[in-house]
Structure formats: C-alpha cells, structure tokens
Amino acid sequence: MEIFVQQSKTNFIITALLMIIIGALFIYNKDLALQWGFILAGVFMIIIGLLPMLETKGVDAFGLVLIILGVILIAVPYAFAGITVLLIGIIAIIIGALAILGALQDDGDTKLFRLIIGGLILAAGILTFFGNDIIFVVFGILLLVAGIINLVAALKA
Q1: pLDDT (tens digit per residue) in 122-134
Q2: pTM of the predicted model, to two decimals?
Q3: Who contacts 95 (Cβ-Cβ below 8 Å, separation ≥6)?
Q4: CB 6 within 8 A of CB 56
Q5: Which residues on neighbouring strands pair with residue 3, listed in sequence order?
C-alpha cells in the first residue's frame, strides 16, 4: 500500500470554489454562512481527501485527515460556530495591531494607508466581540477575491 500527499489541479479548483461560495455566504448572511459553511467545507474536505486516492488507487495520509475532519464538520457544524467567531475576532485584532505597529515603523509613502487599514482591521476585530458583523463581511470579501484569483490561476495552469 502506497502512502502519498498530492495536490492536483482539481483540488485547487474545488478549494477556490469553496472559498467563493463561503465568501459570498459571509457577505450575504453571517449566520447562514456559519450554518452552511461548515457543512459545505466538510463536503469539500471529503471530496478533496478522496480525489487523490481515487486517482492513484493508493492511501493518502493527508486525504484521510481531510475525510475525518469533513465528517466531523458535517456531523456537528454548530460546535465550531462559536469558536470560529471568537477566532476570527482574535485574529483580526492581532493582524490589525501588527499592521499598525509595522506602519508606525515605516517612513514611506504607504504609512498613512497602512495605519488606516490596520486600524480598520483592529476595530472590526474588536467589534466582533460586541456582536457586530462587519468582520464577516470583510472576511467574505477577502475569501471571494482570493477564491476568484485562485480559480483563474488554476484554470490557466
């Protein structure tokens, strides 16, 4: 039995589509995104985990991990919703603070822009803890844009 780790063009396309779908859901409705996002992520994780094994008729250690995580996400999607909201808020606060610190050390033309972006990300992260959904719209836009860029890159490859 062969064990391998493989990333294919199909995996990149599926991942890009997942990013686009979940990004659009976050922009449209955070609660709907959390409800269906984990289920969709679970389905896609199972597919991405199975594809390399089906293509090569071997066992893929990374694929097995993805399949197990996918089943867990489908079985109990709500268990991850609260943790995800908390983690996104914390990550946004850290990224915003680091962006501000980096901008303060910069003497270039982008200092003001970096301060503003860092401040907005920091504020969005803080607002997440008060029930404000702006960070989810920002996160959705970022996922949507990254998904489109990855999809175009995968299709050109």
Answers
A1: 887 888 788 767 7
A2: 0.51
A3: 118, 121, 125
A4: yes
A5: 59
